[in-house]
Design a protein that fits this description.
Layout (H helix, E strand, L loop, with lengths): L5 E2 L2 E2 L4 E4 L3 E5 L9 E5 L12 H21 L4 E6 L14 E6 L8 H8 L7 H8 L20 H20 L2
Antiparallel strand pairs: 1-2, 3-4, 4-5, 5-7, 6-7
Helix pairs in contact: 1-4
Catalytic activity: P(1),P(3)-bis(5'-adenosyl) triphosphate + H2O = AMP + ADP + 2 H(+)
GO molecular function: bis(5'-adenosyl)-triphosphatase activity; bis(5'-nucleosyl)-tetraphosphatase (asymmetrical) activity; nucleotide binding
Subunit structure: Homodimer.
Length: about 180
């Protein structure tokens, strides 16, 4: 039996579609677009990028590069946003380092409004610093292609199914390289 995988205090094992020695990739609870996934270190004490050990850092960025190539291939993306919000004032919503990998396309591109979406994504229970940051206005709100109130959390079954599909596709992708 494998150990449970945590994203901060949340068990996310069924959402994980890739795991290396120090890092994992999981499907997002409330993706901004299809293919929006997260890269996360296995060690929960890693809150900020600078908390990674040298070995973890190498593994983290190798995983990020693999998943970047995979998401581009799987979702036929023209580009990607690869975003780390390093601390609550930078928009980090969970006190555990994570990198957003978000497919982007020439058609229907919302440009930098993607950062507003990231900024508005929230998880209850984060630090008072995040609350203070948002109380002070955060980033200026702009009209979004799809407002946050029109995005809904997915069920564990939906995320588990997507994680299994991505795990299978990643194996296919890796064997074709």
């Amino acid at each position: 039996m494998t150990s449970p995988v945590y994203f901060s205090k949340y068990v996310v094992t069924p959402q994980v579609f890739f795991k290396s020695q120090y890092t994992y990739a999981l499907v997002n609870l409330k993706p901004l677009v299809p293919g929006h996934v997260l890269i996360v270190p296995l060690r929960n004490e890693v809150i900020r990028l600078s908390d990674l050990t040298q070995e973890e850092s190498v593994d983290y960025f190798k995983t990020l590069q693999l998943i970047q190539r995979f998401i581009t291939w799987q979702f036929k993306a023209d580009s990607l946003n690869i975003a780390i919000q390093d601390g609550p004032e930078a928009g980090q919503t969970i006190p555990h380092l994570h990198t957003h990998v978000i497919p982007r396309y020439r058609a229907n591109n919302i440009g930098d409004k993607i950062y507003d979406r990231l900024d508005k994504w929230s998880f209850e229970g984060w630090d008072e610093r995040r609350k203070e940051y948002l109380k002070e206005g955060g980033r200026e709100a702009r009209k979004l292609a799809k407002p946050d109130d029109q995005r809904f959390a997915r069920s564990a079954d939906e995320m588990g199914k997507e994680a299994l599909e991505l795990q299978q596709k990643l194996a296919q992708f890796s064997s074709s390289r």
